[in-house]
Amino acid sequence: MEDQLDMAEKKVLVEVVKMAQKRGMSGAKGAWKDFLNSYDKQLGASLSDPSRRSKEVLAAFLKTFTDENDLKLFAKVIQCHSNRALTELFKEESPQHKSPEQRLVRLTLEHPQYPSEYSFPSYEEEWVVIKLKKKSKVMRSTKLVAVDCEMVLCEDGTEACVRVCVVDRNLKVKLNEFVNPGKAIADYRTEITGIAAADLDGVKCSLSDVQTSMKKLLSHGTILVGHSLNNDLQALKLDHARVIDTSYIFKYSDAPFQRKPSLNNLCKSVLGYEVREKGAPHNCLDDACAAMKLVLAVVERGCDTNIPCLHDVVPDSEVAKLLLHRIPRIVPIGELHRAMPGEFRVEPKPSKNARGDTYSALAVFSSMEEAHRVYESLEGTLEKDSFGRSQKVITFHLSTGTEANLCVRETMHDNSLGQLLKKRAAEMLDSGELKKLKVSKIGEIEVAAVNQCTDHLKEIERLKEELRQKDLQIVNRCEDHSKEIERLKHELSQKDLEISVLHKIVQQHKEKELRRKSKKF
């Protein structure tokens, strides 16, 4: 151990010392601050931040520990760091020098979610860290095994592995064991795991036994394959650096990286078959084989890792539900009726993380339309979840008067829901219920139509009569005008005649006057 401490980087020693502080561990010269007071007479414990102390001081403190369990814990921390350092060097190597298997390991390590999802509490009790040797032969090994586990919920709120299956590259079964969790089980999740209480009767295989078997299978740089493999490693309490996660290496071509494809969708898209029928429980042997086949499809056939986005067909029973999630655990499930209007019952959802601060539930309505109406009526902040689906963050008051927040999402994609609503409406047009409605209403519809036609005919006749009256008035006025014109013409003719007669009289008078004057002279 002393050699390991001397060779370790300072940042590794800092982490080990901080862990010892957190756990209240003491060596031959006491805890960290006690050691500083005796080791450094000048500064003592006044400079207790491990990151501000030299590597020599840190190593000197850790060398005061002699208890075998303490030394094993330190070795585990140092091994984890060594594994990480080797994988970082592996990532920096030129891709052209790597085998197809190694390139998939690299793809897994470079996934944006790897640092958070594969950051295990490996220092804790019962955890096993697989040692990764520096030999190039080990780091370049192309040996593959695939694993899958089934987990149950225990009464202490934790999850435990109750079955583990491992297959090799040729799909030969290397491990297929039921596991005794060693504590009381609250929920077998039979509908998901396919495991019942009877399956574990008389089972003596422990998690420690499985870890021993896994250490042998993963020796010499063997690559571990799985789908969402971090969950299996968490259940097995196993930290292994050389992994291929099929949920990382395959991705939807038109979706954000956070939306990882399901194993069933990958099998449909890549292998051409479903790993299980809809609603059927998991079978970890089938799932382990499926994960291995997916990796071999890429390694041996060069299969494209970009797949089309598949929208699962959601049963009508699921469509009539709203998903309530990110519910604080302090909110009793009975209080969820205060969050939304309408009549619905609440179904709690099994939690993937029983130790989390939140939980999820389903609000079940009488119909899809009612669920959609309630969702649309909710007032809250509209946002997108990590898969790009619309959801609302709402605030409601508990019976105690305190406020609580949760997220509400419809159980279908936005586009799919719209299409289903249209489809439902179209189906109703042909449904027997609507046909009965048509038969019961047909008399009323016909009577209304006849009455409407009669009203229209009466209006037409009235308008026609009004038009005739107007035409008659126009004709009469025209006749009157013609008579007036004829009268005026006759009167004008009489005037013309009178003028002509008067003109002649005047002319005759002028002539007489002229003759009279001429006789006078």
TrEMBL record:
<keyword id="KW-0175">Coiled coil</keyword>
<dbReference type="InterPro" id="IPR034922">
    <property type="entry name" value="REX1-like_exo"/>
</dbReference>
<comment type="similarity">
    <text>Belongs to the REXO1/REXO3 family.</text>
</comment>
<comment type="function">
    <text>3'-5' exonuclease degrading single-stranded small RNAs.</text>
</comment>
<dbReference type="Pfam" id="PF00929">
    <property type="entry name" value="RNase_T"/>
</dbReference>
<feature type="coiled-coil region">
    <location>
        <begin position="450"/>
        <end position="498"/>
    </location>
</feature>
<dbReference type="GO" id="GO:0004527">
    <property type="term" value="F:exonuclease activity"/>
</dbReference>
<keyword id="KW-0269">Exonuclease</keyword>
<keyword id="KW-0378">Hydrolase</keyword>
<dbReference type="InterPro" id="IPR036397">
    <property type="entry name" value="RNaseH_sf"/>
</dbReference>
<keyword id="KW-0539">Nucleus</keyword>
<keyword id="KW-0540">Nuclease</keyword>
<dbReference type="GO" id="GO:0005634">
    <property type="term" value="C:nucleus"/>
</dbReference>
<protein>
    <recommendedName>
        <fullName>Exonuclease domain-containing protein</fullName>
    </recommendedName>
</protein>
<dbReference type="InterPro" id="IPR013520">
    <property type="entry name" value="Ribonucl_H"/>
</dbReference>
<dbReference type="InterPro" id="IPR047021">
    <property type="entry name" value="REXO1/3/4-like"/>
</dbReference>
<dbReference type="InterPro" id="IPR012337">
    <property type="entry name" value="RNaseH-like_sf"/>
</dbReference>
<feature type="domain" description="Exonuclease">
    <location>
        <begin position="143"/>
        <end position="304"/>
    </location>
</feature>
